[in-house]
Amino acid sequence: MSSRRLVLAAISAAAFAFTSPAVWAQGTTDTRTPQEILKSLNYRHGHIDLHDGVASLNLPQGYVYLDPTDTETFLTKIYGNPPSASGPDTDGMVLPEGVDPAEGWAVVINYDNAGHVSDDDASSTNFDDLLKTMQKQTEDTNPDRKKAGYEEVHLVGWAEPPHYDSSDKVVYWAERLKFGDTTTDTLNYKIRVLGREGVLQLNVVDSIDHLDRIGKLTPTLLTMASFNSGKTYGDYNSSSDHTAEYGIAGLIAGGVLLKAGFFKALLVGMAALWKPIALGVVALGAGIAKIFRRGPRIKPDA
Q1: Could you read off the pLDDT of 236-251 as tens digits, one per residue?
Q2: Which fold has domain 21-299?
Q3: Is the pTM of this model over 0.85?
């Protein structure tokens, strides 16, 4: 995918109810109502090819997919994110069908082609120590954030510590984030599917009190996405394929162990997020992350 590396995902369907349309219109000059914008999007079901056939989604009933162009529309026109400088730079979104986008969760999908990630360090990594490193790097960015007029961001801790499934080659974990003086923390639930020369990224964002709900969704999300034949982790050829500069620890830390200043460059660009009324989302990628400025959450029916 593009040089921006992140994952988040999708939404669906026909009629949506909105509790506060004005919130959705923030940051956009589009004169259409949120309902009109949503109805203009193409919601797809079933089998979806991702990133020119590198991977696929197989959506069960009750979930829908938006392609990169519609995802860009959704993120900019509905969530009020700044537009991507070079056009759409995700691999789409997945959303629960028939939901109210003013509440709930969302997933954004990206493929990061940074190379084959070795899992040799998976069993030896001390994730508590890794968390402390990530927390320090995050705090180090706050003076620059404040100077730029943004809220401070704090990595409170693991909402769910990292887990690695060595058979399916999947890493998943959840971070608890706090922005400014907000009383509601943000849940950033991350899933990384390892492939031959890259990582399929799925980032799920919700409020922290919905951790159990997202945890229950995880098995379904894990079965939705997979690499196609010839692109799987087992297809890796060490003599010809590109290898990433980091392992599992670096993947979780977003490359922070390799790139001093990564979080500084990333977090300084984030706007004020997750307000009690105007709820926002933020997704941190495994390399360079995408930013969600202001936007409501998306709630599944179940």
Answers
A1: 999 999 999 899 999 9
A2: Jelly Rolls (2.60.120)
A3: no
